[in-house]
Amino acid sequence: MDSKCRDTQDRMLDWFYEEEEDRSWDFDHVQQCRECQAYYQKLLKIEGKLPREPMEFQASDSFVRALEDQVRKERMRVEEKKEKKRYLKELGAFPGVAFLLLTLMGSLFYNGIGPSFIQVQLVGFLIFPLIIPILGVVEKKQEQGRDSYGS
Amino acid sequence: MTERELIKKAQAGHNQALNQLLLDNYSILKGYLVKLTLQKELAEDLTQETLFKAVKKIHDYEPKGKFSTWLIAIGKNLYFDYLRKRKREGSFDEYELDSSKIHEKKGPSLEEGVMNTFAFDTMKESLSKLSQEKRSVFILKHYYGYSYKEIAEIEGCPIGTVRSRLHNSIEEIRKAMEKEGLDGF
């Protein structure tokens, strides 16, 4: 087969299978070339023997149910995986934060400001419960102010 | 709802969208696998396996072309894996049913109605002469009208190879038909 025939048959094939919209092959060549004419006939005969309509299949009810079940199971698996990941993250975060705090404390003591840090903490712990009622009163007043402004 | 919307929903965790997406493509996938394997029961099992695998991999799917091209690529790879495994095991027996898989044991379905024995035998006769790679390309082009680009994606080969496989398939089918003297070649 020469290159002209090869090119013509490629173009015939492309057009036949709707890869190309137009018949772009050399008509003069086809009129003179038996090989290319035969090739076109081949395409037509194959189509006659093997009709191009795709077959229709319908999923059985049991198949649909099995598929739905599989989808559900897969979703659960993904969710469980996510949950496990989150749990491991949290589990890892706790020793991480504890280690960080201990290191901080260690470095404070090492630098000699540990006792004063503890003193500040103690004062904070003692004062904080006393502040809570005051915070409540302040919040209430703010709300009252907002209400009177609104009316 | 368009296919893209269904894909988006399915990837976001919407079960119904995923079911619909898979069932919408069931017919095309099974049709392709029936023609590729030329064994209805094997095709049924592979269809099931393909869809189950798609359920697991839906988050990895990147919607570039048709969703069916992705499913067909999975189905084709599963079939080729199956053939490799059988070759390794040296098994050439007819496909045996796996009892764990779902099979309809009732009378002829719509499938049998459309695809009668004669049509199936004719198709089997013609397609069985082709190698698996050529058969796959021929089926995708001849029966489903996929573009060369889509077929190249499914087959994982260049467009030129797709075209030459199609050429060769036509040549081989013609030769087989000529040998059988079926239609005056």
Structure in words:
- The complex is a heterodimer of chains A (151) and B (185).
- In chain A, helix 1 (3-16) runs parallel beside helix 3.
- With 151 residues, chain A is an all-alpha fold.
- Chain A is elongated and about 105 Å long.
- Chain A folds into 3 domains: 3-49; 61-111; 113-151.
- Chain A contains 5 helices and no strands.
- Chain B is mostly helical and 185 residues long.
- Chain B has 2 domains: 1-91, Rna Polymerase Sigma Factor, Chain: A; 116-185, Orthogonal Bundle (Arc Repressor Mutant, subunit A).
- Chain B is globular.
- The N and C termini of chain B lie far apart (48 Å).
- Classes of the chains: A mainly alpha (151), B mainly alpha (185).
- At the A-B interface, helix 1, helix 3 and helix 4 of A face helix 2, helix 3, helix 4, helix 6 and helix 7 of B.
Task: Give a short synopsis of this structure.
Chain A is mostly helical and 151 residues long.
> Helices and strands of chain B, in N-to-C order?
HHHHHHHHHH
CATH superfamily annotation of the largest domain in chain B: RNA polymerase sigma factor, region 2, helix turn helix motif
Total number of strands of chain A = 0
Second rung of CATH, namely the architecture of the largest domain in chain B: Orthogonal Bundle
When the domains of chain B are counted, the total is 2
Q: The biggest beta sheet of chain A, please?
A: none
Globally, the shape of chain A reads elongated
Distance between the termini of chain A: 96 Å
Proportion in β-strands of chain A = under 5%
